[in-house]
Amino acid sequence: MTARIHASADVDPAAKVGDRTLVWHLAQLREEVRVGADCVIGRGAYLGPGVIVGDRCKIQNHALVYEPAVVADGAFIGPAVVFTNDLNPRAVTPDGRLKGSDDWDCVGVIVEEGASIGARAVCVAPVRIGAWAMVAAGSVVTRDVPAYALVAGVPARQIGWVDRSGQRVPARPTDT
């Protein structure tokens, strides 16, 4: 079964959307975006040029995933999550001219397999969210998150460990 893309979604012709993926109302997928199979891209979500999303991912309503983000298989990006991509955000250069694409250092957020990022969290690039980690809603992630870590707060700090089902556990799980 091919992807199902709502008529109001803006999907660039150069974007690739995998089989059985659903792209909902008013979502925007820019040029060279790659979305895997069996994903859900929510209402009003934005995926910037060249963003890569694996298979079986959920990117919820109004999430902003700026390039060059990479989201691995099975990851969850909650409603209104924001991934930044500029180390030194400014509208203009020091001499006052409007910045163009050659005037900024594009850095990305990497989300590893199975990780979950809660609603309205902000991930300030460059950061890596480890496999099966969980970022609490409303957190601001400013540094890498280890695999299976549970982080929360502003800035986000590790407060525990979670297993693959997202349940808190007393120690870091080991992969078998």
Characterise the protein shown here.
The chain is mostly beta strands and 176 residues long. Helix content is 0%, strand content 31%. It is built from no helices and 23 strands. The protein has strands at residues 4-5, 10-11, 16-17, 22-23, 28-29, 34-35, 40-41, 46-47, 52-53, 58-59, 64-65, 70-71, 76-77, 82-83, 109-111, 116-117, 122-123, 127-129, 134-135, 140-141, 149-152, 157-162, 168-169. The strands form three sheets. It has a ten-stranded mixed β-sheet, with no helix packed on it. It has a seven-stranded parallel β-sheet with strand order 2-5-8-11-14-17-20, with no helix packed on it. Strands 3-6-9-12-15-18 form a six-stranded parallel β-sheet, with no helix packed on it. The termini are far apart.
